Amino acid sequence: PAFQPGDGAISGQVAFGVTGEPVGADQVVRLDAYLNFEPVASFTTTVGAGGMFNFDQLATNPEITYIASTSLDGMSYSSDLLTLSAEQPAVVAEIAVYESTDDPTGLRISRLHWIVDTQPGALVVAQIYAFGNEGQRTYVGQTVDGVDEPATVGFYVPAEAVEITLENGELGNRFQRVGDRIYDTLPVVPGAATRQVVVQYALPYNGVTYDVTQRFDYPVDQLTLL
């Protein structure tokens, strides 16, 4: 009942993000519909010539959000969020896909916001990393001792850090800590600032000054310290 077919249509192309070359004709595209963040419908189709795909007879309820996705080399790639309405019943969706690599050469930190505050007995540190990938393929990670699955980007936290929290994940699941380093396990697609990581932790202290040494594994394009 939440999804009523109508005269809506979503069409588009699946192509490699670097070259613009369309994918082969056997590529499957999935379209998911959500209402209030709850899935209400799902459809699949296969691309035709030129990597083109089309979904029709879709609901034009503007409260329903659509997202088109496809997989390549075990990686999922998706379109932007899409909406249809009676005034705009048809939209075009583009899905960029990439081949995969385990070569980390193109990784860099596009932006880093480093925020330091105080509370009684501790410094409170928040770091917002925006990692980028200058390569032409999605970086899927490498094997690291102590990490259950291939690790992608890593960043250092002081050994004395406590109360470590991460946005969109927990230590032991998506994020893995080995010594004074935390690894993310999600792939990094090509482009600037394509993977964001937010970490917060406390550094116990009772003095009036504190010396912190921060190491980085990648080139840093922009850093702000507050």
| Beginning-to-end CA distance, first to last residue | 50 Å
Structural class determined from secondary elements: mainly beta
Strand content: over 45%
Radius of gyration: 22 Å
Number of contiguous helices: 0
The overall strand count is 18
Instruction: Quote the average pLDDT.
Output: 94
Q: Low-confidence spans: pLDDT under 50, at least 5 residues?
A: none
Helix coverage percent: under 10%
Described by strand count, sense and barrel closure, the largest sheet is: 5 strands, antiparallel
Order of helices and strands: EEEEEEEEEEEEEEEEEE
In a few lines, what is going on in this structure?
The protein is 0% helix and 52% strand.
Features:
226 residues, mainly beta, five-stranded mixed beta sheet, 18 strands, elongated
What does this structure look like?
It is built from no helices and 18 strands. The chain has 226 residues and is mainly β. The strands form 5 sheets. Strands 2, 3, 5, 6 and 7 form a 5-stranded antiparallel β-sheet that branches. A 5-stranded mixed β-sheet has the order 14-17-11-10-18, with no helix packed on it. A 3-stranded mixed β-sheet has the order 4-1-8, with no helix packed on it. β2 and β3 form a beta hairpin. The protein is elongated, with a radius of gyration of 22 Å. The mean pLDDT is 94.
Topology:
Layout: E1 8-16, E2 28-35, E3 38-46, E4 52-58, E5 64-72, E6 75-78, E7 82-83, E8 90-97, E9 100-101, E10 107-119, E11 122-133, E12 138-139, E13 154-156, E14 162-166, E15 175-178, E16 181-184, E17 191-204, E18 223-225
Parallel strand pairs: 1-8, 9-12, 10-18
Antiparallel strand pairs: 1-4, 2-3, 2-5, 5-6, 5-7, 10-11, 11-17, 13-16, 14-17, 15-16
